[in-house]
Amino acid sequence: MNYQKEEMESKNIDHLGIIAGIIDEIGIVEKINEIFSIDITEKVNTGEVVKAIILNGLGFVSRPLYLFSEFFKDKAVEHLIGAGIKAEDLNDDKIGRVMDKLYKYGLTKLFLIIALEVVKKYGIDTKYSHLDSS
Fold it and tell me: Is 9 a member of any domain?
C-alpha cells in the first residue's frame, strides 16, 4: 500500500471564536462596510479590520500597533475574520488607515449605530432603558 503523508497545521481560536461569531451575528462587519463602502482593490475591507481590532482588543494583550499582525500569527485568521485573509494583511499601515477613517466619521456616532443594531437584533426592550452614547 502506498500512503501519502498529509500535512496538517493547527491554529488557535481560543475564546475569539465565540466573539467572532457574535460579531457576525450582530452584523458589525456588514454595517461598517455599509457606512464606509468596500474598495474592491483592498484585500481586507474596513469592516474586517474593525472585527480584527475587536478580536485583538479582547485577546488580553497590550502591544504597540506595529505588532498587531503578530497577535494573529498563531490564530485561524480565515475562520475568525474572513476567507483569504492572512495575519500579515493586518499590518499597522492598514490598521492605522482604518482607525483614521473611524475617527473622522465619529466614534460616538459609530458606537450608537452598532448599539442600535444590537437592540434590534436581540429585541432589547428600551422602554425603561437609557443609552448615553457620549
Answer: no
Question: Structural domain of residue 102, as residue ranges?
Answer: 16-122
CA 99 to chain CA centroid, nearest Å: 12
Q: Are 51 and 28 in contact (CB under 8 A)?
A: yes
Is 5 inside any structural domain? no
Total Cβ atoms within 10 A of residue 1: 2
Please indicate, yes or no, whether the overall pTM of this predicted structure exceeds 0.90. no
Look at the chain and report how many structural domains it folds into. 1
pLDDT of 133 above 70: no
The DSSP call for residue 4 is: P
How confident is the model at residue 77, as a pLDDT? Answer: 95
Q: What digits encode the pLDDT tens for the residues 71-110?
A: 999 999 999 999 999 999 999 999 999 999 999 999 999 9
Cα separations (Å) of 32 from 22, 74, 128?
15, 26, 28
CA quadruple 8, 13, 18, 21: dihedral positive or negative? negative
Residue 102 C-alpha from the chain's centroid: 13
d(C-alpha 55, C-alpha 67), whole Å: 14
